[in-house]
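In full, the data:

***
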Amino acid sequence: MTISEGLTVISEGAFAGNRHLESVTIPDGVTDICYRSFEGCDSLERAIIPASVSDIDKDAFSGCMQLVLYVAEGSFAEQYAVEYDIAYAFTLPSAIAVPLNGEAFPHIAGNTFTFSSGVGGWATEIAISEDGSFTGYHYGW
């Protein structure tokens, strides 16, 4: 689900108990994710949280056991994930979110991308070069 632009707050209990919600993209401009906004969304696997979010209640995602937060590096959402021991991964900064064609590789070169099961079952790391070639590893536990 993608939430409409123009929203600044995800209100208390807004999506609580939605057992069918698997993914949510919170729009840029949202600053607050309130108390138990996504509580009990036990199918929620992915929440993309923009850097504009500056406050997330500690119980906003309670009961979301499969959740991985996709956050901007250095953002409040990253701090939140670390503090409350929630799995997270970094999103690409908008400055390098360009179409994946031959012109994109110089913009993403030098970055390492990690894809994982979110629960420690497996992970794949890929490092991109300017010419589009890549190196990587796959880990399985």
Summary: The two ends are 31 Å apart (CA to CA). The first helix runs from residue 76 to 83.
